[in-house]
Amino acid sequence: MILNRGVGYGLCGLMDIVGMVTLHNVFSYWGKKNNDLQMSLNAEYLKTHFVDTNLLGQKSGEGYYTYPAPAYSASNFLAIPDISQVKEIAKLAIFQE
Q1: Considering only CA atoms, which of 51, 64, 85 is closest in space to residue 9?
Q2: Keywords for this entry (predicted)?
Q3: Of 7, 27, 40, 62, which residue is least crowded by CB atoms under 10 Å?
Q4: What is the pTM of this model?
């Protein structure tokens, strides 16, 4: 979205549109077909964190984003945050399992 300001959503939004079940099935198929461990791990991640928890994307109303008003539809979605928000953004960026 940053490189092409004309697009209405990015990769995660597209994944929500396609749906997590479809993505899981595609990744699982190609992981097995090509003996691709990383693709199989990606499929398992989608299953565990999205499919099994009913975060199916637009179909269920939530995936990477919450619908019907996903964050990427906000006019200020790509706005540069104020420097005072750095600590809060850093907290959000730390991946915690």
Answers
A1: 64
A2: Membrane, Oxidoreductase, Transmembrane, Transmembrane helix
A3: 7
A4: 0.73
Tell me how many degrees the CA angle 90-70-24 measures, rounded to the nearest 5: 85
pLDDT string in tens for the chain (97-residue length): 556 666 778 889 999 999 999 999 999 999 999 999 999 999 999 999 999 999 999 999 999 999 999 998 888 888 888 899 888 888 887 865 5
DSSP conformation class of 11: H
Closest to 19 measured CA to CA, from 51, 42, 66: 51
